[in-house]
């Protein structure tokens, strides 16, 4: 059986996207490596290098202290500056685009790893500094360890140059949109790969037994392998009640089962549900639609007034909707052609309505954006879909968009453009 959720793995999932996770791992590694080098110094590694390759070893105590002190001071300054740049990025993304983008930016591993490299080098240099004896002879000075501290500092300088390059890209809306799109695309493609033919043969669940959670948070995922094995072993069927990404309160039913379960069985199952205090696109593709929609709405607000960003975001939204049309509204987890688990998901009509309701409200007065949305609907109607009902949903939302735009636009040329869009979409 594949790996399933355990308390340790669940805790790891919660902390791995925190901005402090990788810096903490690197910090511990730096301290451990410093102690390892102290041990090797006591075993005579610097003595061997002085006798064979003296050019690689710093053999003066005062020089070693000065070099390491300068390295520590410079590294701390670089780390403070880098951390300040991350805060500027988060502040600008929150004020100009959408606060929902912050969890994804905070979880950027490049920024975390670079901060971790700084901490690794700083802590290594500090502990090596303590082991230097300024009045000792050349064989008592950890010369090779000092050389490694210098090399780590040089590596940090190159990491800082890369950080400046990366942060200058990360602050651009096109980079943020592309990152959000790629994350949601990966999640959707993974769902499509595991989605077989949808079979509607699933019994009514009205009289099934409900079980509630004792946790509060955003429902992110559950252990598919464990629940499937449990259902097969106990010969039961389940339905997962909350939609992924939904905020679940303590005491809310989270699943139903066709048979009554023992307290221990319920506890084991609930332990396989993953709840989080933050929302991530990698966990829930629907969040990508919310983020891109909010970027469009924020760009069209009077305070920002950036139609170009809105047009770019609509391109990404179009591609995501195309992928979503390939996914069925109902999801089943089955084995041997038997559906054991039914998973609730956001239906296509609900998803498109929530997206277009916000966009219609703030973009209906801009004919250029309305034209772009018309192109989006025209493209989507020419694509494949899991259900023919999806095309009816597209027509319905296109009609609502044109109706709202017609109500606020007075220019005759603009109204003629709306008429051409309606004819192109074959709307009455």
Automatic annotation (TrEMBL):
Membrane-spanning segments: 20-40, 64-90, 111-132, 144-164
Signal peptide range: none
Name of the protein this chain belongs to: DUF2254 domain-containing protein
UniProt keyword annotations, A-Z: Membrane, Transmembrane, Transmembrane helix
Pfam families, sorted: DUF2254
InterPro entries per the UniProt record, alphabetical: DUF2254_membrane
């Amino acid at each position: 059986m594949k790996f399933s959720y355990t308390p340790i793995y669940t805790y790891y999932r919660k902390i791995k996207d925190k901005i402090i996770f990788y810096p903490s791992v690197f910090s511990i590694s730096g301290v451990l490596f410093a102690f390892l080098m102290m041990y090797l110094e006591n075993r005579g590694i610097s003595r061997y290098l002085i006798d064979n390759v003296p050019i690689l070893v710093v053999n003066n105590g005062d020089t070693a202290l000065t070099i390491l002190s300068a390295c520590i001071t410079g590294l701390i300054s670089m780390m403070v500056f880098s951390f300040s740049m991350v805060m500027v990025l988060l502040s600008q993304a929150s004020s100009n685009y959408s606060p929902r983008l912050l969890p994804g930016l905070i979880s950027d591993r490049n920024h975390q790893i670079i901060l971790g490299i700084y901490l690794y080098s700083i802590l290594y240099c500090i502990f090596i500094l303590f082991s230097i004896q300024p009045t000792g002879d050349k064989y008592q000075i950890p010369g090779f360890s000092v050389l490694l501290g210098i090399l780590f500092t040089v590596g940090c300088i190159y990491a800082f140059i890369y950080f400046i390059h990366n942060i200058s890209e990360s602050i651009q809306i096109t980079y943020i949109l592309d990152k959000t799109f790629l994350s949601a695309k990966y999640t959707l493609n993974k769902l499509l790969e595991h989605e077989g033919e949808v079979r509607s043969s699933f019994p009514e669940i009205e009289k099934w037994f409900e079980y509630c959670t004792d946790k509060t948070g955003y429902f992110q995922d559950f252990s598919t392998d464990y629940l499937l094995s449990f259902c097969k072993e106990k010969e039961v069927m389940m339905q997962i009640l909350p939609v992924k990404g939904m905020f679940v309160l303590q005491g809310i039913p989270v699943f139903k089962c066709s048979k009554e379960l023992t307290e221990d069985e319920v506890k084991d199952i609930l332990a396989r549900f993953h709840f989080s205090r933050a929302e991530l696109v990698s966990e829930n593709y629907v969040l990508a639609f919310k983020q891109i929609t909010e970027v469009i709405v924020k760009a069209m607000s009077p305070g920002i007034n950036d139609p170009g960003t809105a047009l770019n975001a609509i391109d990404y939204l179009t591609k995501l909707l195309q992928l979503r049309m390939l996914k069925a509204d109902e999801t089943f987890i089955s084995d041997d052609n038997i559906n054991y688990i039914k998973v609730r998901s956001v239906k296509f009509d609900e998803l498109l309505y929530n997206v277009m309701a916000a966009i219609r409200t703030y973009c209906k007065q801009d004919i250029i954006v309305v034209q772009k949305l018309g192109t989006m609907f025209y493209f989507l109607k020419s694509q494949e879909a899991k259900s023919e009902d999806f095309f009816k949903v597209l027509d319905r939302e296109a009609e609502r968009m044109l109706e709202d735009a017609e109500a606020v636009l007075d220019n005759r040329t603009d109204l003629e453009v709306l008429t051409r869009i309606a004819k192109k979409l074959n709307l009455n």
